[in-house]
Amino acid sequence: STLMDSRACVRMAAAAWASGFLNAALHTANTFSIPLCQGNTVDQFFCEIPQILKLSCSDSYLREAGLIVLSLCLFFGCFIFIVVSYVQIFTAVLRIPSEQGRHKAFSMCLPHLAVVSLFISTGMFAYLKPPSLSSPALDLVVAVLYVLVP
C-alpha cells in the first residue's frame, strides 16, 4: 500500500483487460471477414492468424498488416510497462536491508519473470520467424510452448 494504492491497481488491471479485448476484437472481426477458399482445416491446436491467412483466397495482407502494427503497439506498450515495473521491483528489493528478506523477495519475483520471458520469447519466435523455417511440426511445438507451458 505504500508503493501503489488500490485505485492505481484497478486502473492497471482495466488497461490490461481493455487492451487485450481491443486486440482480440479487432483480430476476430478481421478473421470473420476473410473468405476461405482452401477449406477450413487448420493444422494447429487453435486458429492462429498465420494459418487462417494461408486458407484465405483474398489478398488481405494490408488489412492484416495494419492489425499487426496495432498489436505491436499494444505489445510494446505492455512490454515497456512490464520492464519499468520490474526495474522498480528490483530496486525496492535491493533496498531491503536483510539478506534473508532480499532472498525471499527474489524467490517470489524470479519465477514470474521466467514465465513472462518464456511467453514473450516463444511468442516472438512464433510470429517473427521467417517463412523458410515454418513447418507444421515446428508450429505445433512453438504453440505448445507459448500457450500451454506458461
TrEMBL record:
| UniProt entry tagged with the keyword ATP-binding | no
A Pfam family hit: 7tm_4
Q: Where in the cell is it found?
A: Cell membrane
Q: Which GO terms describe its cellular component?
A: plasma membrane
Per UniProt, what is the membrane topology? Multi-pass membrane protein
User: Which InterPro entries does the entry mention?
Assistant: Olfact_rcpt, Olfactory_GPCR
Keyword list (alphabetical) reads: Cell membrane, G-protein coupled receptor, Membrane, Olfaction, Receptor, Sensory transduction, Transducer, Transmembrane, Transmembrane helix
Annotated GO molecular function terms are: G protein-coupled receptor activity; olfactory receptor activity
Transmembrane region(s):
68-93, 105-127
Read off the PANTHER family from this record. Answer: OLFACTORY RECEPTOR
Q: What is this protein called?
A: Olfactory receptor
What is the organism of origin for this protein? Answer: Rhea americana (Greater rhea)
Point out the gene that encodes the protein: OR
